[in-house]
């Protein structure tokens, strides 16, 4: 088949066996590859009610359908499984080099079941698949692990490594999976699943080519897109971005966003380009979501000015097939240490959320968490929770080993993170995130645990963009910020390709319009979910999609790669299939499909100062309208029976029968 390998690898860690399975062609046409392929097999192989840290959970590493075909910004890989953090469908997304490496090994995905008796790693070379002893790696951090494995597998062809650090080994529910020395697939706690299976790493070193149906057409489309991505004006700077944020805060109007503007900042600074803009405009939460831009004004937020971060950059890097290159390596500790340039989420989670003005500590914490393999978003949210609990008497100095927890203290941040990573003292309570910590503390602790469905929220405030709050509670994996927002809909500009997509006509519109519980806003959200699911099936980066559907030729690339002749609406149907399948996974678990969210991010009660003063989100009405727009039950969120019938109607393969017999 074109663009895909047509098979996946199953690794049974209990029995220490590996076997290949052919993927029926109709699966690709229904769900693509990537996230859709993972959802198809995990729904069929993970039994309802399975323990997320038990042998029945399946952990999937998948590559996107477009990866390796010559298309651009399509090198994302995903890991998926039942989340131990939320108890729902879980997935995490990452760039780096692993996505093409999966396909170069001859597979579209690698699926792990069971639990190994001792630490192991999976090695796949050209035509060789082996589980190898990893006892000597257990206890090493992610960078040490990757260095050791790369040295052991030096060859004419470089290897790609995904691995876990000490946080996942100790089953922290906010642990992620590292690739390329600290690029993290961080969300959903799937690092803990890898740790529970005693799977330390995956090492990929294949050399199989990836074919496309029409490589000349892909090249033509990619050349056109590269010209758009290359345009970069010279006048941008961090101070100007902050002033723009002040203007947007003071204006009674919102401005429709074109993603080309965001690309300008992204290419120069990476994701930190709008740090101060986001604080000033109300996008970034402050002081555990209880504060506002008034509490962290310009003289304080100057600590995270993107020019200060860029000044520490020693080299830029690009993910696979990316012409933008938002990544970079930076130095800290007077140039004695290096770390990946901290992302926007990391800087704000360890900065404004904690009232921390010490940039050096943010760099140090970023490296500490990357090496440990712990999600920086959840870690920052958990530290903020702990500080507020301490200040309200729910955590004492005796609990913390004498450490006084207070805002704007970098020593508190670094010490608490050390304890969380090692599961020592109060860190053992905090290592599983805010929801479980609040349950264990009891009392009023729940008031300070800002999360949705058990996952700490990213640094985008629903009071500023209600779309972030809506997607945090309706998505199959809760608390995520990379699926949809009103901002995303404006940048995707789907109305340029889809006749049924509502058009955002006005360049400026009243801010109050964002808080209307209209069917149109729900339509935006439903199309966001479908489009982003399609992107995740293709392995595409949302930063490329932010440039607009008229510039990012995802539909044409898919046709040129596969030889299909599908239109945009048919591809959006595939996105709906993927989204509905993930929702069906949760429905089968018998859990509420509307995830609970803390009242602060939805303005309950509204803030009285700052950029988001007076704002509240009509979440209940929007949820019902979203489910209705998706074609799901508007009262419960359950997908229609055709989704379950399609799954049941797919022919059971010989491999599936053997799997069921062996595991049940």
Shape: globular
Cα Rg: 23 Å
CATH topology of the largest domain: Aldehyde Ferredoxin Oxidoreductase,  A, domain 1
Q: What strand order characterises the main sheet?
A: 2-1-6-3-4-5
CATH superfamily of the largest domain: Aldehyde ferredoxin oxidoreductase, N-terminal domain
Poorly predicted regions are: none
CATH architecture classification of the largest domain: 4-Layer Sandwich
Helix vs. strand class: alpha+beta
CATH C-level name of the largest domain: Alpha Beta
Question: What is the averaged pLDDT score?
Answer: 95
Sheet with most strands: 6 strands, mixed
Portion of residues within helices? 40-55%
The domain count comes to 3
Record keyword descriptors for this entry.
Aldehyde Ferredoxin Oxidoreductase,  A, domain 1, 19 strands, Aldehyde Ferredoxin Oxidoreductase Protein, subunit A, domain 2, 664 residues
Written account of the structure:
This protein has 664 residues and is α+β, with helices and mostly antiparallel strands. It has three domains: 198 residues, Aldehyde ferredoxin oxidoreductase, N-terminal domain (Aldehyde Ferredoxin Oxidoreductase,  A, domain 1); 198 residues, Aldehyde Ferredoxin Oxidoreductase Protein, subunit A, domain 2, CATH 1.10.569.10; 184 residues, Orthogonal Bundle (Aldehyde Ferredoxin Oxidoreductase Protein, subunit A, domain 3). The protein has 27 helices and 19 strands. The strands form five sheets. It has a six-stranded mixed beta sheet. Strands 8-7-12-9-10-11 form a six-stranded mixed beta sheet. Strand 10 and strand 11 form a beta hairpin. Helix 21 packs across helix 25.
């Amino acid at each position: 088949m074109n663009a895909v390998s047509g098979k996946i690898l199953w690794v049974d860690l209990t029995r220490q066996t590996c076997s290949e399975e052919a993927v029926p062609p109709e699966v690709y046409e229904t769900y693509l590859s990537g996230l859709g392929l993972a959802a198809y097999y995990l729904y069929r192989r993970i039994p309802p009610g399975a323990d997320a840290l038990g042998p029945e959970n399946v952990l999937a590493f998948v590559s996107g359908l477009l990866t390796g075909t010559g298309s651009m910004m399509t090198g994302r890989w995903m890991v998926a499984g039942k989340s131990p953090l939320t108890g729902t469908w879980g997935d995490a997304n990452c760039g780096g080099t692993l996505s093409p490496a999966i396909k170069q090994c001859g597979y579209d995905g690698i699926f792990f079941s069971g639990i190994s008796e001792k630490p192991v790693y999976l090695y796949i070379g050209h035509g060789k698949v082996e589980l190898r002893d990893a006892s000597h790696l257990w206890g090493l951090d992610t960078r040490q692990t990757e260095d050791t494995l790369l040295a052991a597998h030096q060859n004419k062809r470089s290897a790609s490594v995904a691995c876990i650090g000490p946080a996942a080994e100790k089953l922290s529910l906010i642990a992620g999976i590292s690739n390329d020395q600290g690029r993290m697939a961080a969300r959903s706690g799937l690092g803990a699943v890898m740790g529970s299976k005693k799977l330390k790493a995956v090492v990929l070193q294949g050399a199989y080519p990836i074919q496309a149906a029409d490589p000349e057409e892909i090249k033509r489309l990619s050349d056109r897109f590269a010209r758009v991505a290359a345009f970069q004006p010279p006048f941008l700077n961090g101070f100007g971005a902050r002033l723009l944020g002040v203007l947007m805060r003071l204006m009674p109007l919102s401005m429709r966003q074109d993603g080309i503007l965001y690309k300008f900042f992204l290419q120069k600074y990476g994701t930190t380009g709008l740090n101060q803009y986001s604080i000033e405009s109300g996008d970034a939460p402050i002081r555990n979501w209880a504060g506002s831009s008034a509490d962290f004004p310009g003289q304080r937020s100057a600590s995270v000015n993107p020019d200060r971060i860029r000044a520490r950059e020693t080299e830029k890097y690009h993910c696979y097939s990316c012409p933008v290159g938002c990544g970079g390596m930076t130095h800290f500790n007077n140039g004695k240490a290096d770390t990946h340039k901290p992302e926007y989420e990391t800087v704000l989670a360890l900065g404004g959320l904690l009232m921390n003005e010490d940039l050096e500590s943010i760099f140090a914490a970023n490296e500490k968490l990357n090496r440990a393999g712990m999600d920086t978003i959840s870690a920052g949210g958990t530290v903020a929770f702990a500080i507020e609990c301490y200040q309200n008497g729910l955590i004492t100095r005796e609990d913390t080993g004498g450490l006084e927890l207070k805002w704007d203290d970098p020593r508190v941040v670094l010490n608490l993170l050390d304890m969380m990573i090692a599961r020592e003292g109060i860190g053992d309570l905090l290592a599983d995130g805010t929801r479980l910590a609040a349950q264990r503390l009891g009392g009023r602790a729940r008031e300070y645990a800002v999360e949705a469905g058990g996952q700490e929220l990213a640094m985008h405030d629903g009071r500023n963009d209600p779309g972030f709050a809506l997607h945090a509670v309706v998505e199959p994996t809760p608390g995520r910020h990379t699926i949809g927002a009103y901002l995303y809909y404006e940048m995707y500009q789907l109305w340029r390709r889809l006749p049924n997509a509502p058009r955002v006509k006005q360049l400026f519109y009243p801010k109050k319009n964002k808080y209307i519980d209209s069917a149109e806003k729900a339509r935006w959200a439903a199309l966001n979910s479908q489009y982003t699911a399609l992107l995740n099936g293709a392995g595409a980066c949302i930063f490329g999609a932010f440039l607009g559907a008229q510039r990012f030729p995802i539909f044409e690339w898919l046709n040129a790669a596969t030889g299909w002749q599908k239109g945009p609406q048919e591809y959006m149907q595939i996105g709906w299939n993927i989204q509905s399948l993930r929702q069906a996974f949760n429905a089968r678990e018998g859990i509420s499909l509307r995830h609970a969210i803390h009242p602060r991010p939805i303005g309950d009660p509204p803030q009285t100062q700052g950029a988001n003063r007076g704002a509240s989100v009509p979440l209940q009405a929007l949820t019902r309208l979203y489910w209705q727009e998706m074609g799901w039950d508007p009262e419960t969120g359950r997908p229609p029976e055709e989704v379950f019938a399609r799954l049941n109607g797919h022919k059971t393969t010989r491999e599936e029968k053997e799997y069921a017999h062996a595991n049940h």
